[in-house]
Amino acid sequence: MKRKNPIVFLLILACVPFGLFLVFYLFLGFSPRDEEDLQTTLEGVVAEVTEENVLLVEGLSVDEVLELDDEALLEEATGAHRVTITENIDDIEIGMEIIVWVTTIAESYPTQSTAEDFEVQED
């Protein structure tokens, strides 16, 4: 009768929990995330409205947005975002303060994104 090597047995016994931990960790790390977890919030004043998108600027008051021309708006604003809005864009007017939820932002100036949802801020 051949005797089994206890070192091999202990090595296998030690590797099994590590392997299970590794599989569990990889499963959690690469699982799809809820889209709401990936959303970014943009807040600002609407400086321009077209048929498909709005120009949202940060760091300026409503009065400043209404007084400045397009070039000055982009220079004076601390942030500017061109946001495509697919629903209810007719509810938005220049000078409104809004919050927009987006999931992807293209790095440019102004940044570009598509709104998942938006909310007009009441005074």
TrEMBL record:
Taxonomy, superkingdom: Bacteria
Pfam families assigned: DUF3221
UniProt KW Membrane keyword: yes
InterPro entries, sorted: DUF3221 (IPR021598), NA-bd_OB-fold (IPR012340)
Keywords: Membrane, Transmembrane, Transmembrane helix
Membrane-crossing segments per the record: 7-28
Protein name per Swiss-Prot or TrEMBL: YobA family protein
